[in-house]
User: Which sequence fits this backbone?
């Protein structure tokens, strides 16, 4: 009975881990000229690991590409020129959208595969298992614990962003309301001045 419960727990943990993994694998069709980019919004202190390679679709020489990854503030975290494959790995130090851009370096169209792993998905769990001498259910529970922690951090980040956006929205609404009141006051003042000016004009002309 205990073994059955352990097996069910293992299956449940594996399903949750597979569901919660943060991996983006995309195919990018690069034109002979121009650039294509993939972006991902990432928090601070998050591990990012990615592999990319050009696909040989016609059985000819594989075209070379140039790859560049930039941070939200424009800092270059990876730059690789005239290559057919590569890898970049870094830990984020800025919050925001990171851009991975690719363009053909040989002047010919190309198809590129990008496997982008973030956070828990980028962690080498085999090394963790060997280092801490854990396996099976214990290893999956450790992965599940990391996933829960990652979800918690994401929720805190979203809550913080929501509070910031709410504050900006409230300030904007206050400024709009202030502007509206000032605009109404100016309109009333201008209208009153026009009425007073017309009244004086008619009085001078002895029309009233």
Assistant:
């Amino acid at each position: 009975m205990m073994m059955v419960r352990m097996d069910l727990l293992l299956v449940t943990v594996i399903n949750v881990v597979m569901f919660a993994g943060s991996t983006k694998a995309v195919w990018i069709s690069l034109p002979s000229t121009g650039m294509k980019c993939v972006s991902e919004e990432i928090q601070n202190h998050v591990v990012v690991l990615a592999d990319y390679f050009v696909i040989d679709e016609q059985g000819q020489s594989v075209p070379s590409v140039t790859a560049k990854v930039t941070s939200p503030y424009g800092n270059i975290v990876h730059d690789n020129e005239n290559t057919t494959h590569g890898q970049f790995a870094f830990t984020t130090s800025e919050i925001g959208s990171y851009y991975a851009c690719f363009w053909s370096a040989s002047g010919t169209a190309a198809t590129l595969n990008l496997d982008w792993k973030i956070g828990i998905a980028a962690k080498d769990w085999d090394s963790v298992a060997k280092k801490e001498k854990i396996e099976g259910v214990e290893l999956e529970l450790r992965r599940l614990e990391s996933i829960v922690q990652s979800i918690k951090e994401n929720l805190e980040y979203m809550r913080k962003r929501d509070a910031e956006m709410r504050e900006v929205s409230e300030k904007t609404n206050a400024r709009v309301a202030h502007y509206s009141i000032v605009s109404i006051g100016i309109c009333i003042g201008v209208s009153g001045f026009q009425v007073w000016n017309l009244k004086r004009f008619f009085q001078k002309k002895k029309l009233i």
